[in-house]
Backbone:
């Protein structure tokens, strides 16, 4: 596929300055990782990673991040549709609020979650009365809420962008042919935006996997329930066990890289350079 | 001069630095606060510290064993454990033994960090089988959860109680035999480093530390 795209560009020799800046950018992003790998105690890596505590943290991480990504999709998809398709006053404000967790320090997010869902929070009291939940501290549900809070925006913007790129004529054609709104959504819209759905879900999952601040603030650090890999890494670091912290970091980086490489095929490098307008019969 | 001090010493060492600078106008004291273990790791990695004040003897011993201390570490203060509850005391906690109630939301430090090791030792001494809901990596994070009323009880240092203001109350723990010991040592050979250590150990320094709830050894 690279051959095809390079063949299309006749004058594709980039200026030296661009190459140099790009190299510096790669160095800035990659050097810390190289530094980490160079300090990794490879010989004892297996022992550290095989420890029950590490495996437990990995299990919590996988469960929490997958469920959080699922929540992000289930709640985020309708939201993305509303943001992309409905004209209403205050849409820009709603979008800004929805994206806020992306820029908010996660610790602030964690404390804000207390003010909403905590014992003295806005709806926390009602929540506790209905579900008889005394606290979300030290519960996997709390960890999922914290992770979904920070990861859902990643799904929403990706899905919204995907929806906006759809050719609306395909949907209107389907409804002209008699399909109901639900059928159009199910048979036309969703299949067409599948790549951006997958990309958004993967991005949300990756963000949830690396989540730390909101989780430890809102859900606390409880082994087997809320202690994810990032929490275990921070704890090992604070406890003066850098080898364990590094080993678990390598594990987390490995898993994240796998996700991001998988993502690359769907989203970051589209299968073909996007044609200026639509692929079907050219208008005008 | 750069002083590396444990996070729990923050307020006290800010006062110490102000006082020391007032007495030595030509010296500029820069303070670096973090968990003792993290500071020790930075010093091992070659950070330019002149003085290191640790919240934990074992951490200081590691630095000393690496030959990085310029003077032998000296115990300069100790800190005791405190049991804090939200001011309304929703869990009705009146003594350490109440912490064995599983319905109670209990926040403690992780056993790997000094305040967690101290909490575990005190609980063990008292024969209290507590099941913490969260093990924080910093003592102030424990305090925050109690201050917000999200935890019914938390085990912190006596010196942290004041930082909770009027939102927390402290439950008396009775006579204690366990303390957390804070050693200090000069890291660099500079005269100002040993001079600052002497100041911390001297009557003026000890007075400031006591005003923050620390106890002289």
Residues:
């Amino acid at each position: 596929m690279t051959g095809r795209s390079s063949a299309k560009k006749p004058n594709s020799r980039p200026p030296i300055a661009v190459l140099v800046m790009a190299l510096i950018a790669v160095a800035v992003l990659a050097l810390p990782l190289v530094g980490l790998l160079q300090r990794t105690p490879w010989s004892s890596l297996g022992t550290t990673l095989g420890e029950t505590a590490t495996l437990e943290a990995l299990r919590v991480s996988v469960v929490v991040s997958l469920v959080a990504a699922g929540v992000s999709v289930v709640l985020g998809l309708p939201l993305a549709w509303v943001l992309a398709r409905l004209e209403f006053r205050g849409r820009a404000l709603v979008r800004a609020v929805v994206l806020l967790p992306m820029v908010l320090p996660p610790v602030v997010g964690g404390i804000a979650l207390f003010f909403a869902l905590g014992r003295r929070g806005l709806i926390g009291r009602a929540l506790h009365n209905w579900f008889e939940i005394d606290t979300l501290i030290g519960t996997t549900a709390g960890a999922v809420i914290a992770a979904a809070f920070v990861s859902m925006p990643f799904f929403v913007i990706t899905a919204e962008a995907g929806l906006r790129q759809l050719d609306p004529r395909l949907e209107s054609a389907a409804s002209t042919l008699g399909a109901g709104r639900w059928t159009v959504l199910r048979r036309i819209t969703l299949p067409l935006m599948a790549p951006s759905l997958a990309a958004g879900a993967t991005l949300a999952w990756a963000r949830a996997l690396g989540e730390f601040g909101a989780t430890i603030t809102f859900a606390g650090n409880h082994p087997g329930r809320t202690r994810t890999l990032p929490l275990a890494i921070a704890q090992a670091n604070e406890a003066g066990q850098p080898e364990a912290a590094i080993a678990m970091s390598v594990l987390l980086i490995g898993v994240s890289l796998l996700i991001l490489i998988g993502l690359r095929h769907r989203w970051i490098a589209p299968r073909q350079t996007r044609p200026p307008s639509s692929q079907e019969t050219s208008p005008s | 001069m750069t002083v590396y001090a444990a996070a729990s010493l923050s307020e006290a060492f800010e006062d110490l630095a102000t006082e020391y600078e007032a007495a030595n106008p030509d010296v500029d004291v820069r303070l670096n606060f973090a968990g003792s273990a993290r500071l020790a790791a930075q010093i091992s990695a070659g950070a330019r510290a002149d003085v290191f004040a640790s919240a934990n003897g074992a951490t200081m011993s590691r630095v000393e064993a690496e030959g990085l201390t310029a003077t032998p570490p000296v115990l300069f203060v100790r800190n005791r454990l405190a049991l804090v509850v939200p001011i309304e005391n929703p869990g009705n906690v009146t003594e350490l033994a109440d912490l064995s109630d599983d319905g109670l939301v209990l926040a403690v430090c992780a056993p790997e960090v000094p305040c967690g090791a101290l909490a575990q030792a005190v609980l063990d001494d008292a024969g209290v089988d507590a099941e913490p809901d969260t093990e924080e990596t910093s003592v102030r994070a424990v305090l925050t959860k109690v201050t917000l009323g999200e935890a019914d009880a938390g085990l912190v240092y006596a010196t942290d109680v004041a930082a909770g203001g009027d939102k927390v109350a402290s439950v008396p723990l009775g006579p204690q035999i366990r303390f957390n010991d804070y050693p200090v040592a000069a890291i660099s050979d500079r005269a100002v480093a040993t001079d600052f250590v002497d100041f911390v150990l001297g009557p003026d320094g000890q007075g400031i530390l006591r005003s923050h709830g620390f106890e002289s050894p």
